[in-house]
Write a structure and sequence with these properties.
Number of strands: 4
Number of domains: 1
Structural class: alpha/beta
Largest sheet: 2 strands, parallel
Strand order of the largest sheet: 1-2
Order of helices and strands: EHHEHEE
Strand content: 5-15%
Oligomer: single chain
């Protein structure tokens, strides 16, 4: 199977989620506020920005719908997740879901 270049998709709702998560106090031992800001700026600059043009309410956890909306709006072929709920994201869709092998299925 030939290798293809992966692309990261990003939307405003996903960027807001990343910012909120990386701002949590429990992550301070691992990433400083400045490092989080630098990561977000770098990730935002390297990602393909997608305007969300669908509304999806298929996820058990409604806060996960934004990930599926991004995948569908951006014509993603895969979703990589560390969330056990992510296994159901691609159900009935042409997008494959890969559960990261080091995932503990926890937030």
């Amino acid at each position: 199977m030939p290798w293809t270049v992966a692309r990261s998709l990003l939307s405003l709702p996903l960027l807001a989620e990343l910012h909120e998560v990386l701002s949590r106090e429990k992550f301070r031992p691992y990433i400083t506020e400045d490092e989080a800001r630098q990561f977000l700026a770098t990730f935002a600059g390297a990602s393909e920005w997608v305007e969300i043009d669908v509304t999806i309410n298929d996820c058990r956890d409604p806060s996960d719908n934004k990930f599926l909306e991004l995948a569908v709006s951006g014509n993603a072929t895969h979703i990589v997740t560390g969330d056990n709920d992510g296994r159901s994201l691609g159900a009935g869709r042409e997008c494959k879901v890969w559960l990261h092998p080091h995932s503990q299925g926890q937030e």
